[in-house]
Amino acid sequence: MLNRRESREAVLGLVFENEYGCYENKDELYTTALEARGIEENEYIKTVFFGIVEKADEIDAYIEKYSKGRKLSRIAKVAKSIMRIAIYEMLYIDSIPASVAINEAVELVKTYDDEKTKGFVNGVLNSVKEELGK
């Protein structure tokens, strides 16, 4: 059984892989990726991955709004994927406080991206949190 952090990492892999557009069928991407990585499916992984796919335009609008003039296409795929997870959590998962979503995102950046990206991600996500009044 995966804990929440491990589940977030699994979602990160899925969202990141989805960035490359190799799978038209998102169910196929989901099933293939989980099998290939030996990840046990859970409700969090499934809900967040498919929720991000479904709400991508809304989530990306928040990223673009607060990324200080950077176009979405110029943001690293890892950072973008991490922010998508945190914004989805802030918008749609009431049981996860916004501060936890942001903290977990920053921890993922520390692991999967470089140090200077941490401040950028934190700034964007805190702006989203403020706009949402959370």
What brief labels describe this structure?
globular; 7 helices; mainly alpha; N-utilizing Substance Protein B Homolog, Chain A; 134 residues
Tell me about this structure:
The protein has 134 residues and is mostly helical. The protein has a single domain (4-132), classed as N-utilizing Substance Protein B Homolog, Chain A (Orthogonal Bundle). The chain has 7 helices and no strands. It is globular, with a radius of gyration of 14 Å. The mean pLDDT is 94.
Write the element-wise H/E pattern from the N-terminal end onward. HHHHHHH
**Name of the CATH superfamily:** NusB-like
CATH fold label: N-utilizing Substance Protein B Homolog, Chain A
Please give the domain count. 1
Number of helices, where a helix is a run of at least 4 consecutive DSSP H or I residues: 7
Task: Give the averaged pLDDT, no decimals.
Answer: 94
**What's the number of extended β-strand segments?**
0
Portion in beta strands: under 5%
Residue runs with pLDDT of under 50 for 5 or more positions: none
Helix content: over 70%
CATH top level label:
Mainly Alpha
Task: Indicate the radius of gyration in whole angstroms.
Answer: 14 Å
CATH architecture label name:
Orthogonal Bundle
Largest sheet, described in full?
A: none
